[in-house]
Amino acid sequence: MGYKPQFCENDCKYCNYCNHKANMVLTIAERERIQRLDDSKEYVSVEKVYAHIESCLKDAMSEIRDGLYLIPAQTASGKTQVYCNLVQSLKNEKIIIAVPTNLLKQQVAEELHIREINAVVTPSIEEMKVPGELVDEVKYYYDIGISRMAAKVLRKFIIDHEKERSPEIILAVQKCKEYLSFYSNITKFEYIVTTHARLLTLSEAELKGYTVIIDEDISLYLFKNIKKVSLKSVEKVLSLDHCPLALKTLLSQIKDTKDNAYIKVTPMSEEDAISEEDLYKYGISENVNDLVRTSVYYKKKDGEVQYFCPKMLPKSKYIILSASLSPALYRQYFFGWYVKEYPKKEACYLGRLIQYSAYSMSRKDISKRGGKVIDSIKDICGDIPIITFKGMGEGYNEYGLHFGNTEGINAFTGKNITVVGTPHNAETVYKLIAFHLGVHASDALHWQIIEYGGYKFGFTTYNNPMLREIQLYFIKSELEQSIGRARLLRFPSTVYLFSDFPCEQAELVQEEYIKKIEQ
Prior knowledge:
Layout: H1 24-29, E1 35-36, H2 46-62, E2 67-72, H3 79-89, E3 94-99, H4 102-114, E4 119-121, H5 132-143, H6 147-161, H7 167-184, E5 191-195, H8 196-199, H9 204-207, E6 210-215, H10 218-223, E7 226-230, H11 231-238, H12 245-256, E8 261-264, H13 276-281, E9 296-299, E10 304-308, E11 317-322, H14 327-333, E12 339-341, E13 352-356, H15 363-369, H16 372-381, E14 386-387, E15 417-420, H17 427-436, E16 446-452, E17 455-461, H18 465-483, E18 494-498, E19 506-509
Parallel strand pairs: 2-11, 2-12, 3-5, 3-6, 4-5, 6-11, 13-18, 13-19, 14-15, 15-18
Antiparallel strand pairs: 1-17, 7-10, 8-9, 9-10, 16-17
């Protein structure tokens, strides 16, 4: 029936005397026993993986059809070199390369400049020397998908400050002019390097004639566009006399929705939003305007409303290279698009991934066990950098890396590191995305034996195949990105992983490792 068994701790008077798991079912199920389903998997050399990615990329470039071309590319396999070399060999092609961060944007541009390719880098408002309040206002409009208003804000700043003589303001006005000039002439450039976020602000007209190469999995960025607003703000906007009718109808529906319900709605146009001036005038600090773009929302019992704002790539040709692609999710999210999936080839790690799987190492599990977790882990690994949950690992590594911000970072290349945790998201994250994709979200999480990624193991997950795919895809992507910082494919370093979610090429250690508290 999917009922959750009671926890042994606090519910059983024998829990201090019994070598138990979280509950009776897990205690007798030997949940820690992860089984590798097939030990005969064939690996090829790193050189062959590189050549395979190169071949797939050339094939995708030769295609004339708009759509998505998904190329699996192992971390550290050299995909950046592959597409930079390809761009160098092309003639009369217009290319946009999109990467996850501004740092990677600059690095890829340098790689192209080394090859004497005159690639331009899209300017970012965060990188400009302009007042912080201007940055915040422009980012606000980009975040809610109204790039036209972002440009309007910049033009107003220029008009209001053009006659000022302060060196800082003169520089800021000049930067704003350069920024607007770049984007008004963006189609004139042959090679452009940008970010995932900026790519999503470009129109179909601006992308016309370009092939877009996307480095890393952009669907992670798309799926994380989940926001929240309080019911108090919803009610405050409803009380305004001049709230647009369409928005007022939606807010009334949200207010009357029963607690713990997922509701699918039709996104509205930006004309249905409230002016920034009115939000400020009436003291509404939350971004209620984002609700005009939502496709599904969830009303919590505590009065908070969570919602998913889907972002969509304009119709064009996209080649996506990443180690963590889920073709099933791409096909579902970009329903009706042409999707071509290329086969995956993998090389064996030069380094080692040693995984300790006896405990779940969820955020809740780590918090419950307290400081003895890290003490026990350091006894095994030594005092080396640790990547774990945000807020739990301050001081564990000098770069401040945590789950959610490791993508593309090379700081730990060739070094031994430790990854601690199974990065579960809140259930509402999985269910909001699933509901947007047309999947019924009533399924409940419960522990069961599953097969995934070449393993058979026990895990708390869903029966619904698409809900399960969303959940496991998030967890796998985050872990693989963190593991990938050591570049095990090309360096003889070691990554120690503490999680009950089995990862590719892991050497499994399934015995208990946390110190027992002496009675």
